[in-house]
Amino acid sequence: MFYLLKCFIQMKILLNNIDLNEALFGKSNIGFVPTMGSLHDGHISLIKKSLKLSNKTIVSIFVNPKQFNNKKDYKRYPRNIKKDLRILKRLKVDFVYLPEIEDVYKFANKVKIKLKKQDKILCAKYRKGHFEGVINVMTRLTQIINPSKIFMGEKDFQQLFLVKRYIEKNFKSKIISCKTIRDKNKLALSSRNILLTKKNLKKAGQVARNLILFKKKLFKKKDLKNLILIKKNELIKKFDIKIDYLELRNTKNLRLTNKIKDTKIFIAYYISSVRLIDNF
Q1: The domain containing residue 7 runs over which residues?
Q2: Is residue 102 within 8 Å of residue 20, measured between CB atoms?
Q3: Are 258 and 129 within one domain?
Q4: Distance (Å, rounded) from C-alpha 207 to C-alpha 199?
Q5: Last residue of a domain, one of 147, 178, 209
Q6: What is the pLDDT of residues 19-69, one digit of tens each?
Q7: pTM score, two decimals?
Q8: Is 130 a residue of the active site?
Q9: Which among 31, 56, 28 is positioned nearest to 46, based on CA atoms?
């Protein structure tokens, strides 16, 4: 860790909450970008927006064990701290917060986080305890950092929706929504993409392009519910993937809908053993 401090001296690396409190004391208009590391262009777009809209920007790198409902998934989550720090230095980020688990979880949450029945949809239906874990860690990080703005991507739209509702209800921090960044094949950037083979990366891009085109065509169609079901079966057969869900939902309340206005198509699927999510 001394090596990291020496190499990135221009960028303050905060290894614990004492370092963080000293660094942020007296600072205002703080922009916060929470990450689990393995940074890509999607993260970079969030960071650039924070640098533009905030006086100071802090990026956290913390692989949160509480939001993994599968221990194997937690262990194999991609990590590359040296590469991440090089990226953050190049971007001229002010602060990087690298907490240990005890820094984040040493105090008890006063309010028990529990999803409502109507929220147990999409990924919440298939990943028990996942969003409780996400909201829990975001609550703790918000309490620790006290940012003015928190920058989050739309790729994890359900996560963005739930975190925004909870954080803005309980804190003064504002959640800033940022557009999904895609590669040249239209695949949404994700740290998990590194787990895919070249063949499966290509396949995932084909799935994305297929659904982007499908969504455009829906504007002229009726009986959308049936068309979504037909598309789901088509994707399974064409690309040999397992689909957890393919649903059309309203972006304002995440309710199922048969109307195209203010909607996104949400998908979660497996290519081999890698689970990908997206929305269009």
Answers
A1: 2-178
A2: no
A3: no
A4: 13
A5: 178
A6: 999 999 999 999 999 999 999 999 999 999 999 999 999 999 999 998 988
A7: 0.92
A8: no
A9: 31
